[in-house]
Amino acid sequence: MKPFMYPCFRNTLCCLLFAVSALVGAAAPTKIRVGYSYWLPNVPMDVAEAHGWFKEENLDVVFTRSDTSQAVIAGLKNGELDLATDMIGSWIECANQGADVLILGEVNWSHGGDKIVVRDGVDIATMQPKRLGVYMNNLAVSQFLNAYLASRGLVGADYTLVEVADGPKMQEMFGEGKLRAVVTCEPDAGDMVEKHAGKVVATTADYPGVMPEGFAARGAFVREIPKESLEAFFRVWFRAVAYVADPANAAEVAKIASESTLGGTDTYTVETLTEELAQVPLHTPKQAIVTNTKGGNLQTYYNRCLGFLIKAGRLNSAFKPKDAIYTEPLLQAAAAADGRK
Question: Bridge-partner residues for 243, per DSSP?
């Protein structure tokens, strides 16, 4: 004889058992601590956060936004961050210095967003003293600066570089004439032209691909988590890139960029958002596939940076260049977004 069970109790028990089995079977969200500096090309991540797209992919993404690239790089190197965006040259330099960092791929490049600005009609070739202000004295910025100097028949080694990471401070020094030529980026470059009679003599648009930007991760983090989690992160990234590119979303994106991506340090309108995004174009999935595969800009730029380090006697003998790049998750996500898989 079967034991009698009230129908309501039986139904409740079944529901509880189903809920428990679902909880047991569901994978815990992958936590990713992501860092970036206040810079417009990072807006897809804030758009994705605002729409809850990371959660849809079972990712628990926590953002740390910083005033400078230096702070972002330090955060990745010392383990406070798992993933970060900055100039690819910054990540090459980190890896060359022995940091356990993997370059995950290029996602945009500065195409006019970085500029060389002079004041008082100064000619960099003849100015004295030969001091150049830079917002970051590293491999990434030097590639742009050296490309310009070489086009003038000049040599970077003849100049003293003065690093001023704080944008307002650099503007102040430029306005006071303490720095008469600088490498800077928007929105500081525009302010120097408007407020201090600066003149732009070169931009990264003059040397396409000279300053690519992209993601890097702690090597230990990549080895710990499922590859699928990184693919999921980049699926969200490309989804958000498409959203940002749609003119119908411009007003919303401008608001998110002003409040989150720039942390209130600047305010975008639809017009200024469109203008500045054109100077830091985000790669579509198709473009990302081209630039991150063999023969693309990432490889070309990477080899050029290695050549620079070798020539300067700065290449670390322990550095293994082939082991510092891991683009598979990004390429898989780009292929999916482009309808190739």
Answer: none
In the chain the domains, ranked by start, together with CATH numbers, are 30-109+211-337 (3.40.190.10), 114-206 (3.40.190.10)
189-236 pLDDT tens trace: 999 999 999 999 999 999 999 999 999 999 999 999 999 999 999 999
Cis ω on the peptide bond leading into residue 187 (within 30° of 0)?
yes
DSSP of 155-166: -GGGSEEEE---
Identify the band that residue 26 occupies on the pLDDT scale cut at 50, 70 and 90.
low
Q: Is 269 helix (H, G, I), strand (E, B) or coil?
A: coil
Instruction: Name the residue among 94, 157, 145, 130 with its Cα closest to residue 311.
Output: 157
**How far is it, in rounded angstroms, from Cα 111 to Cα 281?**
7
Whether 21 shows a pLDDT value over 90: the answer reads no
Q: Which amino acid is at 213?
A: E
pTM exceeds 0.90, yes or no: no
Which two tokens mark 299? 């490889």
φ and ψ at residue 158, rounded to 5 degrees: -80, -5
